[in-house]
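Homework-ish question, so no full write-ups if that breaks the rules, but can someone show me the predicted structure for this set?
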Amino acid sequence: MVMSWIFTGMLFFSVLFAALSGHGGALSAAAVEGAQAGVTLALSITGAVCLWSGVGKLMEKIGVTAFLSRLLSPVLGRIFPSTKKDARLAGSLSANVCANFLGLGNAATPMGIAAVRRLKDPKEPALATDEMCRLIVLNTASIQFLPTNVAAVRSALGCASPFDILPAVWVSSLLSASLGVLAAWCLGKVWTR
Amino acid sequence: MTDYLVPGILLLTSVLALGKRENGYSVMLEGAGEGLKLIVSILPSLVLLLTAVHMLRASGAAEYLGKVLEPVFSFLGIPPECALLVLIRPISGSAALAVGTDLMAAHGVDSLVGRTAAVMLGSTETTFYTISVYFGAAGIRKTRYTLPAALFADFVGFLAASWTVRMFFPA
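A: Not a homework solution, just the prediction itself:
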């Protein structure tokens, strides 16, 4: 339903502004061009998306995710103290973070949901606990080693070195994740249930 | 530095798979097939959303939004051209991809605006969607401060994207 509002809103403002500024003639051409641009974009990133999806699957299979989990466990233990007492929680939580890190969105989501379920407060199961909020913030901050979809779009548009943005992406993700978790931690101290 | 990243990852994963007696090629085939399914599933939404984005740009509405928000964005150091992307990124992933691609195409992939759009796309997530999927599936209704904290993280991501692109790619 949200998408219907967004889509209709975009159309509404286009027509409104075209009418006000007299750009109406360009609007129908732009609509058809845009539709074709959608197909072109999807097709031009297909190769890279398939390739990385294959590499990601293989990384998971040969244990890169498990290896990363071991590296990350001291950090995750600090952010999520419950993982020290609950081995299954620790497993799904670090699998979620590591799958995100490798850009395996499909693998990350079920693991994240499993972790949220295990973090539930038995006395009040509908309540988001502090650790849940931190997990969501970590997920929405998107710490991704290789943003392959963006790189695919860049090379489709003719960029010679699509991965040259990596250092900027890493610094930005790390800043947003760490400040986000810090904000969640502070809010958790003052937010009443 | 990033020249050998892609070939290195391809070679390393294949060699490691062979070392573990895994049929790496067939695993990758399976994964590549899943990638194709992903493309098929997002193509229709990219068609609709790029139609709307192109109309927004042709009508002058996107430019107007940038002009209105320019004082705020300039103060924060975010290119005003990225205004629509910043607004839509937490709500819809495919709409953000459509807007971001359009920015990269219109301003150039290696321009300040194009790079900032790419870093924003790469370092933030579809916040509202993530929260609704995770909490919806787990039956969490009292979300407390999750949304403000997650939106704050997005905001930091947008600022950092704009600043790091200026830092790593000085004009």
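Now go work out the reasoning yourself. Hint: Chain A has a mean pLDDT of 91.
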